[in-house]
Amino acid sequence: MIEAKTPVRASQSWLDGALQVHDDYERNVPELFVPNVISIATEGKEFRYGSIGLPVELWGHGGWKRTPRRLPCNRSRWRSCRLLRPHAVLDLLANFTAYATDQKKRRIKIVARLPAVRRHNKIVERVVAGHPKRA
Residue 111 in contact with residue 96, Cβ under 8 Å? Predict the structure, then answer.
C-alpha cells in the first residue's frame, strides 16, 4: 500500500498519507491489508514505511537517495527506494516478517527495519562466501 501526496503543497507531508492509511484505510477496508507486507507514505521529499497497525510515529525512514539526472534507467532526480524493488519486498515478506499477538488478542504483523535487513543480508553473504568472521 502506497499513499503518495503532492510534493507541491507545503501543507501536506508523508504524515498526511500515513495517517490516511493508518486511520482510514486500515480501519474501513481491512481486507485490503491481508496480503500487505508494508504500508508506505510519501510526498516525494520524504518516504516512510510501517507495518499494519503500527502507529505512524514509529514508521521507519525509507531512504530516498538523490542521483544525477544522467542515469539512463531513471529520468527523475529521485532513485526508487531499494525497499520497493520486487526482490526486496519478497525478501522482506519471506525472511523479515513475523506475527505476534498483543494483550488484547489482536494479531500484529512485525516487519524488520531496513538497516537490520541490510546488515543481516551482508552477514549471510559473507558466511555463504566462506568468510564467517569479518577480516
Answer: yes
